[in-house]
Each structure stands twice: as C-alpha cells, then as structure tokens.
Amino acid sequence: MIDDGAIEARGERDTRRFVRYLAVGVALFVLDFAVFVLLHVGLHVEVGVSQAISRTLGAAAGFVAHRKFTFPARERAHSLTGQGAGYVVLTIVNLLLAPLLIELLDWLLNGAGVIAKILTDVVMVLETYLVLKFLFRQRRSRNV
What we know:
This protein is mainly α and 144 residues long. It is built from 4 helices and no strands.
C-alpha cells in the first residue's frame, strides 16, 4: 500500500531542498562576481586569471555550502573524499559540457545566443542538482 502522507512529505522535502540549492546558487554567483570584480576592476588582474580565481573559489565554497546546507545528512552514502572527487569531476564535466550545449542550442535556434544561454543555464542547473542530490545523499538505514 502506498502511503500518500510519506509521498507528500518527500515532495515537500525535495522542494525545500531545491529552494536551498537555488539560494546557495545565488550566493555563489554573488561571491564569484564580487571576487571577479575585486580582482579585475579593483586590483587590475587580467580578466582570464580573475575568472579562473573567482570560479575556483566559487566551486570550493559551493562544495561546502551544498554539503552542509543544501544536502545535510547525519550519515552519508559517500565519504568526504568520494564526495570531493565527485564534485571535482562534476565541475570539470560541466565546464566542458556547457560550451558544447550552448553551441548546439545556438545552432538549433539559428543564432539566438541569448535564448541558447538561458536554456543552457536551466539545463545545467537541473543536471547539477540531480548529480549533487546523488553525490550528497544520505546513507539508508539498514533496519531488518
């Protein structure tokens, strides 16, 4: 028998988690942008170096924030090392995937680059959420 209350509670929990994910994403964007502006505009660091530093700091902060705030758990299915490695792989895959996706969408949409950018960002946000949900998942209790 399906417990409708349990399904509803899980749906509410998933919604709250997704809202936390989006809130962390906004905070990470602000951090990334502030560091970039400080370095490039304030300290006159070259644009590419400023971008690399701001993205790296944002990724490190994102790992901590998502692990502690978006996907908190008492016991995790993966070790800290496994989660860290998975997060690095996800970051690298996303850095490679996003430009390919935006190029494909730009081509499919006959040069509508802004729309391609928006669609790419939506896809990447959803893809990353699903991967992080798996990566930071809680260990299932073994009640037998």
